[in-house]
Amino acid sequence: MKKIIAVDGPAGAGKSTVSKIVAARLGYTYIDTGAMYRAVALKVLQSGKSAEDVTENIDIKLDEAARIFLEGREVTKEIRTPEVSRGASEVAKFGFVRKKLTELQRAMAARGSVIMDGRDIGTQVLPNADLKIFLTATVEERARRRFLELKEKNLAADFEQIKKEIILRDKQDTEREIAPLAQAEDAILLDSTNLTIEEVVDKILELAE
Ligand code: DC
Question: How far is the centre of ligand 1, averaged over its atoms, from the C-alpha of 4 (Å)?
Fold first, then answer.
């Protein structure tokens, strides 16, 4: 039978890392909704058009390997820059963007069992999900993980700067008027601050059972 797991939480809590692993273990499709907001932001940045113009006929696709395609072109890596991160949080405020992406997300979830991560999945996109997880971690810990990730890739990383950006994104995501980041009433809170990736995955698998 078709099953749906919704994973929401702030930036950097580990949603996509654990959701990907859970999807592989259960044979579900993983859907990264943040990547879709990022694709809209990338199109705005690259085209110089308004978010409204860009959204109307936007073509966004995710494949089974969680690669993302914008107008048929793969943009999986391009959407991960700090500039696109900021832009995604901006375009996510608009009702017309959220409406369009919510429709696409519901259509994807209708096709089979999915684990979908984002900010409003349990509250707005898939309120009837079979399991809802709200995954958090302290700001310090989320910044530390991001810092180590960049270091590992030999990229420039400034801990205080990363922390500032996380605080700003949390603020934008929780304070926006439409579909803000929020824990659904029936979601299970999982604080990953002192847990390993494997421990979080095991916990979700246990709950899914
Ligand atoms: O998860 P992420 O960092 O890739 O998400 C990028 C931005 O998109 C984030 O700042 C908030 C927005 N977003 C959203 O508003 N709703 C979602 N379901 C997913 C992401």
Answer: 19
pLDDT category at 103 given cuts 50, 70, 90 is very high
User: How many Å apart are CA 19 and CA 102, to the nearest integer?
Assistant: 19
- Residue 91 C-alpha to ligand 1 middle, in angstroms? 10
Exposed, middle or buried: residue 209 (CB in 10 Å: 0-12, 13-18, 19+)?
exposed
pLDDT averaged over the chain? 95
Cα 144 to averaged position of ligand 1 atoms, centre (Å): 20
Best probe residue, ligand 1, of 15, 16, 18, 37 (max atoms within 8 Å of C-beta): 37
Classify residue 61 as exposed, middle or buried by CB count within 10 Å of its CB (0-12, 13-18, 19+).
middle
As a whole number of angstroms, the distance between CA 195 and CA 177 comes to: 32
Is 8 strand, coil or helix? Answer: strand
Is residue 55 within 8 Å of residue 62, measured between CB atoms?
no
